[in-house]
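Retro notes - structure team

What went well: the batch runner handled both jobs without manual restarts.
What didn't: labels got mixed up in the shared folder, which is why I'm recording both outputs here explicitly, each with its sequence directly above its tokens.

Job 1
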Amino acid sequence: MVAVIHTSSRFRAVMQYNEKKLEQGHAECISAINYPKDADALSFDQKLNRIQRQLALNKRTKVNTVHVSLNFDPSEKLSKEQLTEISKAYLKGIGFEKQPALVYEHRDAGHPHVHIVTTNIKADGSRISLHNLGKNQSEKTRKEIEIDFGLVKAQDRKAQEFNLKPVSIKAEYGKSETKKAIANVLDKVLNEYKFTTMGELNAALNHYNVAADIGSEGSRIRKNNGILYRVLDKDGNRIGVPIKASDFHFKPTHRNLKVRFLYNEMNPNRTKDSLRVKNSIDFTLYRKQNVSLPRLINILQKDGIDTVIRKNEEGKLYGITYLDHRTKCVFNGSALGKQYSAKGITERCIEDPFSLQQQKSQKMGLDVGQVAGAGNVYHVGNGSSLENDKSLDSLLSPVKDGEYTPHQLKKPKRKKQKGFSIGF
């Protein structure tokens, strides 16, 4: 079993992501822990209000939402009851057993997994520390659950589902069945990388010799919002028979990808992750007058950042995308700012002498140039049960502004100091 923890301040966005999966038939809410009603008897607003009332107890804590995914080996067939018990055991192990939590079983990937949505704000308004939660409590609990429930151990599993580091799973036409090869790449990229556009998605897929084709302007594919997935050869050319998105059981369709784009765009860590890419570029180019684009690409590669460039038939750079394998984030250059766009980078880098000589000898265009290159986590505390609630139903009603703020958390009012004057 592999546990991946994300924390944020966007509880509603996390809820909408899981509920959207439910509406599409790709997920089911199988348990509502520390809720006054069973999961199947709760409306969306009731699920939302229960935890929002607890968030209102502490408005000083910004990071108040915990989103955990528990991932199991593809060979394991686990019932809803087993998944619920495993989720409860996990929450207890990390100190969240008394926190309200919703458990969603997702069916949009090639392996069984559940998403747990909860909060680190306790019933008394205090917060559970999230520092090193994944490294300490989560890792210890994961190993205990593997033994108690007889699960496949993550450290013994060599399959790529449990390898969260970049590995070579490139699709090679003729060496493996096309659909299976593409499915392996999609499973890794869609579940690990954070992209917000089709261009950013393709930058990650191209790294593993796969492309998502949405068709040209006016084509039937584009009109029907379809997607064809293709294998690429070593030169980036499309080969083999394309596979429709709807042919994969986890449905990586245009509509479903839009939900993923939105979710990734709202990720609170995206701004921080973008700073790593920008700082790496700025540090390389700072006060240096001799850095060409190929040299910049090579230096970024050593820092775990792939640079995907796009050139027209005349060889002029018109697009650039950065693929950060450490944070698993993908950024279009213009999204980072003008100085990181294709034009900005061209102005900041010197002309490559070899490239100039090559352009003179032969006129060539490059569609995509790539260079090879190389979570978040957190913590514990004690919660509180529903014992002291005067009305269980009140937990499912909307929270009002200013309601349920513990006295000890309210800021004391400052007393006005009386002034005095001196008369003559």
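Job 2
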Amino acid sequence: MVNAPNLRALSRKLTDTKVKASKPKPDGRPENLTDGGGLYLHVKTGTNGRKPGKFWRYNYRIEGRMKTLSIGVYPTVTLQLARERHDEARALLARGIDPAIYKKELQNANSEADSNTFEAVAREWFIKHLSDKSETHRTRTTSYLERDVFPFIGKRPITEITPRELISVIERISKRITHNTHIRVLGTIGQIFRYAFATGRATLDPTASLKGFFKQEEETQHFPALTTPTEVGRLLRAIDHYPGQFYSICALKLSALVMLRPGELIEAEWAEIDVEAQTWTIEVRRLKAKMSIKRNNDPKRKHIIPLSHQALAIFEELKQHSGGKKYVFQGMPHNHDNPMSRATVNMALRRMGFKGQMTAHGFRGMASTLLNQMRDKDGRRMWDADAIERQLTHQDHNVIRSAYNRADYLDERRDMLQSWADYLDELRATTGQVLTFKTKAV
């Protein structure tokens, strides 16, 4: 049986002045100030030095039981607002609806709505599907969404987002960022919608109707690189005369010698350098690879770089500055626990006037291009293409071939890198065009 309240106008007893001046009882016990119809202000002494708290409550009876509904905290909930909420609760009770249960169901519904916004689903997708990706990939993916997508559709319920809304978002990205970034972001959005569909929070993927809608740039991503002997000689001489920091100059010189990715070089650790064996050994955790492979850190997948005499000489100089530290290339004076910035080499190249012509990653393309072009006096290749690819740590995408071709080519790569270093010395010393290696190193 429901005890329905009398909904005629109540005779209210409290005033704003009385509510504001209300205090607990002199002995510290709570004070209840009745306003009428079961609504009252519960005033109690604060704890741990806090000020006394004032709470609006509504006592009512339903199904023969007394219950209390919390209406809010004063002064956030004013006397007028407390009365309005009290009237709403009384109206619910008159229809046989328990106000406390109704409030809880409404909160749950709002919570569920919040969890089904595009941003909420996307962040859940981050955790489920980006955890095994590289840090660079995770950062790039999340930053694009946080900067270019969430501000516009992040708070929208994922079930209500239309293709027209997505068109506006993607067109905005295409005008600001090049290299088909807008297509990749659209693909990410599609993955999020498909995840929402799989988890029962969406009924369709609106990106499906946009397939082919946006224009793609015809591109093959190549990092700018100097690839002719004359250009390379000019670059090497510029490095020799670069008035930059010591670590920057050493990083530039080593970049030309070892064919590593910028991050692999900049984050070099002294524990990886074996001067006696003349090798630099990088574990797979620092190489470009799937996160599942990195986590296993299979020692068979480590990359051994034979060091030329020129590279060893640079490490000897570096040891005088950072020997005994973890990283070869130290960060700023206040940040020696981290290596210097990965952007250092690119910034140095721009300062030397090679913007748009050469990048830190371009040293790999420079070496690969020239090494593949090298011919002996009889016109035969001087270096096995597989040895060059192994030095670059490129994966063989031919699954069958890669299963059988596990050669390390260490001896040939040692000859190749020493000859390459000698060749760079030759280019540095002449303004003319040097076409080939004269002989392999012995």
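One thing worth noting from job 2: The chain has a mean pLDDT of 85.
We'll revisit the folder naming next retro.
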